[in-house]
Structures are given as structure tokens and as C-alpha cells.
Amino acid sequence: MASRSHPDAGSFRLSMLINDTRYRRVTFQIIALLLLCLAVGYLISNLLTNLSAAGLNISYDFLAEPAGYDINQRPIEYTSQSTHLRASIVGVLNTLIVAILACVTATVFGVIAGILRLSKNWLVSKIMAVYVEVFRNVPVLIWIIIIFTIMTASMPAPKAFRGANAESSMLFDMFAFTNRGVYIPAPQFANPLFENGLLNWVLVIAFLLLSFLGARALGKRASAEQASTGQRPTTWHLTLSIWVAPIGALMVIMGLYFDYPALKGFNFRGGLQIRGSLIALWIALAIYTGAFIAENVRAGILAVSRGQTEAAAALGLRPNRVMNLVILPQALRVIIPPMISHYLNITKNSSLAIAVGYMDVTGTLGGITLNQTGRAIETILLLMLFYLTISLSISAIMNVYNNSIKLKER
Amino acid sequence: MGDVSFVRTQTLPEMPPPVAEQGIVKWLRENLFSSVASAILTIIALWAVYKFTAFALPWIASGVWNTESLAACRNVLDGARGACFSVLTERWNQLLFGISYPAEHYWRPTVAFVLLFFAAAPVLFFDLPRKFLIFTGVYPFIAYWLIWGGTILSPAIALAGIIMGYFVYAKFIKSSFAVAFLGGMAVAFIIWILSGYIVPAIAPENPFFEAVPSRNMGGFMLNMILGTVCVSLSLPLGIVLALGRQSNMPVIKIICVFFIEFIRGVPLITLLFVANVVLAYFFPPDSNIDLILRVIIMITLFSAAYIAEVIRGGLAALPVGQYEAADSLGLDYAQAMRLIILPQALKISIPGIVNVSVGLFKDTTLVSVISMFDLVGAIRGPILAATEWNGVYWELFMFASILFFLVCYSISQYSQWLERRLATDHR
Asked: Is the CB of residue A155 less than 8 Å away from at least one CB of chain B?
């Protein structure tokens, strides 16, 4: 009987393909692969038939043709004569702008709301609970439209700012809230180092990054000294000068000044115009996702067991050190992974821009370019490719991070 | 020296606790004014609540409920601040059923909606008799017949196919799951394909319920249809994908991983674009698949990927011992999954599945972007564009928000109740 359950390799029968676990795996996989190929082949043959029936083809030539439409928010140079490709790049940049703004703001809202919801103050914690429940349970599209309506229907028109006794006035003579958007002072350089405006800002960011690295190195050295001597050197003045001096010098060299918005004719000139669509998308994504982040933060802090706090207190640590050295490092391990997936959600939800006419990549490539060229398959493929790249790279970063903070047991 | 020693012979009566340590004062001190910072927060919060109420309450209280247009409403208000809720009463049916659903048939989706509660009850509450599940099984066909109308033969034959398939499955399940499952599917498909030829021939000229084409569906009804249909369809698909992703067969695993990561990596809007403009290219040239069905396909694929990830989490959370125990009992893969692994994994996944479902239900509003007139689409399109109601925003968006809030909040409360109910582990 034993030989029946372990037949020799030589005595292969066809029924073993389905009954013998050694071969069954292979059989199933081949069947699955065949089915997949059949399905894909069927879909593609349908596609080809339909395309040829409609006299269409798959081609990306349209990317090099002039786009012929205007984009109201242009982080890089763009005219209606620029190509569809450039229009898409403008869209991509606009997507990234609103995504980054919303991620930062959502984190601030979420952390504040999450901590306040744990507050011992009954009223405050209840208000935060209401905030979280109300915003989590209503579609983000409705929030975007509501805030867009506030920005366009409830704000005064620029002409309300005119005249000796105008109906509306600017805040501190610097900010103007109008139904065409919010005007804020624009930082400008009198004698920029580069012709291209963007490169100057890259330089500023590079300086800030260097300062950050310098301040971190300083902090590490101070910690090392504390570990060896027991005394932590006072470093705050050095840290402050590392942060302030380089960027200050750069600003002086480049001649920073602010261009204030001013009413000229029927509209505001100068300054930086933040359109209502950007604000609607930004704020709505931030408060909506902020509610989710608040729940994560709360869960993360609650996940640190009470014993940890008590043990730290028993060691004689003061409350803020308990927070910094014991609770936060453990809570962050729980908070950060879902936080990153919320950032991903913000990026994906920013595609709702199309509902309020913000020209992100869905509005340019997947909106006007698609409608003008009729190249639905190509544009939507490119659109998906863009979002996939962002998602997969953020997931990759997240995996690296997760591995680095994983509890190292035994 | 006189004797001043004193021994108390009876206990003193109990003193009342200090004022600051009892009743409302104690509560206020502990919960609102425990420290300076807390007191400041309380005052700021009180001020904000007051400001909000003082702003919103008069507006709601002096609302007008029965005028024909915004101008008439403004007339009634006579310059005072107040809401024009009359847009809700006047456009009530459009908000709920969409613009072009025939008015004389409004009762049909309403009945379907009421029946939905009876169909969902045995699924949601385990204490109800299991026999009620029969109605749950029949409900989709009744609901389809009620909402879309047309001949009763199509849903009836679809149901018949499933019943026959189930009989075949029940007959063979004792011998092998694969044979029973594939046999059941085959029988069901044969019946459906045959009915495709028979039904058009024998369908009556004037069906009992007048047929309503899909493009006439709209309003909150459309959100409900998309939400319930897509969630129920994506659950089995999600389970299959999750099992595929956990499989030890590399080809199947790779297919599932690719599918899940692709869907999760792109926004729902792009998938809706696919449904709107691309998907038709992938069907046979003469097939005429309407937009609502294409949207259901894409949203189902979308949520299936997310549900698959949730269930994968549940599968991974099970101790390996459970898998090994199933193996050592001599159960094959289908039996082990059906009897041992999935019941436990699904139980762990319930909160996640509910979260995905709530998110999906909220995301059904995105169909307004591809110009379907769901609740949001109906508000932004026909209602706000109409001359009578051009300019009433808040009342309409408030209504939409409240509707979604009610549904989503009650689902999440249910999920919390269920979690407590299912917590069988010892704490």
C-alpha cells in the first residue's frame, strides 16, 4: 500500500496531474495562466475590432501637438501654444502642489484633533469627537463643493473693494479675500541669482535642507557628548544661527521683497493669487483626511499601555520627557504607517479637482486633453501610470520605513 | 484643676462633602476647569459653540418650507436671514429618485428600499431565524424587478439559474468542492444563456411593471443602488483575491498582487473614466452595455481590491496553528478554507470590511463627475441650474451631508456593536 501513496517517478499517469499534489500545483497554475491569456486576448481582440471599426488607432503623437487651451494656475511657463505634454506636466505639478499642501495641513489638523480628543476636558473632547464623526461620514466631494461654494459665492467681488468707503477691505492691507481667490503678498527677488525663477526657489530649499542637516548633526554631537560626560552642552543658540544665518544671508543677497496685491481697475494686480478651486480642494482634503488622521493619532497614543507611562514616571522622568522619550517613539510606530496611506489617499483624492475646475493632471490630461484629442485610451493609461508611480513609490518608502522601525525582537 | 477630659460617646453626624467635591461643581472642576490651560480651552470652545449656534440656529429656525421658487422664498423672508428649505420639499422626489424616473412609479423604488431592511436584517443580526435568509437571497431579484421594471421573466430565470446551480452544488458537495462549485456554475450559466434566447420571445408586450431604462436612475436612489450592489458583489470577489494573494502558487499569487496593487494605486475617478469612455471598447462590438452597469463593474473591481487587502490582513492574523490543525485533520484546501480559516478570518476582518463599505458608499458620489445624476449630480446639475433655485446652496448641501452622515454613521455604529458581539476571545 505504501507504494501506492508514493508511486515512482516512472509510473506517471495523466490523472496524477489533477490528483497528485506534486503536479496539481503546476496544472492549476497553467490553467490559470491560460484562462488569463484567453481573457486578455478576448478583450484585446474586441478592442482592436472596435478601434478599427471606429477608424481609430493607438498613438501618442498628440502629446507633441499644441494643446490650445489655457491653464489658470501655472507653476512653470505655459501658454496655449505649448504641447499637450507640457499641459500634462503643469497638471502633474498642480496635483503635487495641492497634495503636499493638503498633507501638511491634514497632519496639523489631525494631530491637534487627535490629541484634543483625548483631553480630560469634556467639552473639548466632545467637540473633537463631533468633528471627527461629521467629517468622516460625509463624502469628501461634498466638502470640496461646499468650500468651493463658500469661496466663490460668499466672498465679495473685487469691485467691492473699490471706492472711498468700500464694502470690503483688505486684511492688514496685505490679504484680499475675493470671489476670484485669495490674494496674498508674493515674495520676489530684486537681484535673483538665476534667470529661471524656479531655480531660485530650488536654491532656497537646498539651503533649508543644509541647515536641517547641520542642525541634526549638531544635535547628534550634543547627544554623544551627553552620553560620554553626562552634561548636555547648550546648543540652542548655535542651532538657531545654523537655521537663520545662511537663509538670511541668501535673502539679503537676492534682495527679498514682497509684492503686495493692489486693486487696479476691476481686479487685483500683483501679489500671489490663490484660486478658490485650489483653496477648496486643499482645505476640504485637509479637514476630511485630518479627521481620519485624528483617529489614528488617538489610537496610536492609546496603544501605548499605561504601564509604560507609569514606569517612566517611576524612573523619575518629567512629563514632557515621558512624552518625548517613552510615549511618542512607541506611538509613532502605530501612527505613521496608516498616516502614510492617508497621504496616498490625499494624492488620489486630489483627482476630485475636476469637480471644481482645478487644473490638476486629471483636469488637464484626463479632462481637456482627452476631450480635445479624443484619445481616451492613451490619456487614461498615462493618467493611471502617473498615479501608480506615485502610489508605488510612496508604498516603497513606507516599506523601508516600516522595516526600519520594526520591533527588533531577539 | 477640673476634669477637662472628654470622651465623645456618640458618632458625629456625617458632614456633607465640601461644595467643591460634589455634584455639578465637582464635575465642572474636574472636566472643564481642571487647570488654567483647560479653563482657557473650555472658554474658547464655549465661545465657538455659541458663535456657531447663534449663526446657524436662527437661520434654520426661520426657514421657509413651502414656496415654489427662490424668489418667492426671499419674498416670504422679507429681507430677514433664513433658510429656503422649500427647495427640499419642492424637489424632494428629484433628490431621491433623480430627474427622469417616472413619477407614477416612485413607489416602486420606495418599496424596494423598505424591503432592503428586511433583506439585510438576517445578515446583520445573527439572532434572527436563519429562514429569513431565503428572503435575502430572493431580494436582489425582487429589487431589480421593482426598480427597473419590465418582464418578471428575466429576474425569475436568473433566480432559477442560481437555484438550479445550488441544487447541483448541494448534490456534489459531499464528494468534491471543485466539482460541486464548477458544476453549479455551469448549470446556472447554461440556464442563463438559454434564457437569453427564450425570454425575448415569450416576454409579454405590456409587462406588469413598465420598464424604466437605466439612464433614468438618479438621485439618492442611484447612490443606494451603487453602494449596495457593489459592496455585495465585491465581497466574494475580494475573498477570492485575498486567497489568491495568500496562495503558494506563484502564478496565481502574481496575478492577484498585480490586480490588487494596480487598482489600489489609481484613483476611483480614473476607473470611472474607464467605465465612461474606455470600457465600451473592450466589449464585443454589438453588445450594448449601459453606463450604470459599466460603472458597477468598475466600482466593484475597485472595492474588491480594498476588501481583498482587509481580508488578507485577517488571514495573516490567524495563528499558523489553525492552518496546521486543518491540514492534520486531513481537510483539503477548500474544506480547510470554508470550515476553518475563512469563518475566523472574516470575523477579524469585519471592522475593516465595514470601513471599506462606508468609504465605497461615500465614493458613489464620484459618479456625478462622469455626468450621472446621483444625489450630488442632481443638486449640482438640474436643481442648481434651474432658474427657480439658482443660488440656494447651503440647504441642498446640508441635506446631502445629513443623508450621507445618517447612513454612514449608523453603519459604523453597527460595526462597533458587531465587534463587541463577536469578541469571543478572553480578555
From this structure: no
Q: Of A128, A97, A131, give the one whose Cα is nearest residue A115.
A: A128
Q: Are B280 and A32 an interchain contact pair (Cβ–Cβ within 8 Å)?
A: no
CB of A124 within 8 Å of any CB in chain B? yes
| Whether residue A93 is found in the same domain as residue A44 | no
Q: What pLDDT score was predicted for residue B121?
A: 86
CA-based nearest residue to B255, from A243, A28, A144? A28
Domain containing residue A116: CATH number? 1.10.3720.10
ipTM, two decimals, is 0.87
pLDDT tens-digit readout, A138-175? 999 999 999 998 888 777 777 677 666 666 666 666 77
Is residue A308 classed exposed, middle or buried when 0-12, 13-18 and 19+ CB atoms within 10 A define those classes? Answer: middle
**How far is B276 from A160, CA to CA, in rounded Å?**
42
- pLDDT for the residue B1: 56
Q: Which of B252, B269, B395 to mutate to test the interface with A (most CBs of A within 10 A)?
A: B269
Whether B396 and B258 map to the same domain: the answer is: yes
Q: Which of B90, B106, B124 is the last residue of a domain?
A: B90
Domain around B410: 218-427
Number of structural domains, chain A? 2
Q: How far is A368 from chain B (nearest CA, A)?
A: 13
A272 and A361 co-located in one domain: yes
A74/B contact by beta carbon, under 8 A: no
Domain-located, residue A248: no
For residue B335, give how far its alpha carbon lies from the nearest alpha carbon of chain A (Å). 16
Identify whether residues A37 and A114 lie together within a single domain: no
Alpha-carbon torsion B95, B98, B100, B101, what sign?
A: negative
Q: What is the value of pTM for the model shown?
A: 0.86
Closest Cα of chain A to B379: distance in Å? Answer: 11
Residues of A in contact with B404 (CB under 8 A): 137-139, 142
What pLDDT score does A395 carry? 84
B410 chain-A contacts, CB cut-off 8 A: none
One domain, residues A270 and A397: yes
Tens digit of pLDDT for each residue in B82-125? 888 888 888 888 888 888 888 888 888 899 999 998 888 888 88
Q: Tell me if A247 is assigned to some domain.
A: no
B50 pLDDT band (50/70/90 cuts)? very high
The answer as to whether A4 is a domain residue is: no
- The closest alpha carbon to B415, from B357, B365, B342, B362, belongs to B357
Specify the DSSP class assigned to residue B225.
H
- Is A354 at the interface with chain B, CB within 8 A? yes
In this structure, the answer to whether residues A17 and A154 fall within a common structural domain is no
pLDDT 10s digits, B318-331: 888 988 999 899 88
Based on the fold, state whether residues A119 and A18 are members of the same structural domain: no
Looking at CA atoms only, how far is residue A138 from chain B in angstroms? 5
Q: Quick one: closest CA in B to A128, which residue? A: B45
The domain in which residue A27 lies consists of: 13-50
B49: which residues sit within 8 A by CB, 6+ positions away? A123, A127
Q: Which residues of chain A are modeled with pLDDT < 70?
A: 1-10, 159, 162-173, 197, 265-266, 407-410
**CB distance B278–A377 less than 8 Å?**
yes
The answer to the question of residue A41 being in a domain is yes
B376 and A348 within 8 Å at the Cβ level: the answer is no
- Tell me whether residues A384 and B266 touch, CB distance under 8 A: yes
Domain count, chain B: 2
Question: What is the Cα–Cα distance from B242 to B255, expressed in whole angstroms?
Answer: 11
Which residue of chain A is at minimal alpha-carbon distance from B36?
A: A121
Q: Report which residue type is found at A125.
A: S
